[in-house]
Amino acid sequence: xxxxxxxxxxxxxxxxxxxxxxxxxxxxxxxxxxxxxxxxxxxxxxxxxxxxxxxxxxxxxxxxxxxxxxxxxxxxxxxxxxxxxxxxxxxxxxxxxxxxxxxxxxxxxxxxxxxxxxxxxxxxxxxxx
Length: 129
Known about the structure:
3 domains; 5 strands
């Protein structure tokens, strides 16, 4: 597989190239090691493509996970509670999730569970597949 496009959030790609080129090289190596053709297992049920063999998103994700994890990358997930009151969210932003919920509900508002998840992280570099 090859990297066709990148999204350089806040010039992250350029930062990696200058400060941690070994991390970028590792990402390139991992992506190029994936044999996408092995993941062409999904049989289309769509009217216009019925029966065509397509890339399976599930199989592709499984391959990416296996390769990134083998190289020491891991998933991160941050859980938190929000509400429809902007000022209350700002007040609870840095609290622990349990305390956020209690603080929101103490005002009579509904606490809504949310999270932020990143597929692979290593040396403060994040990769989303």
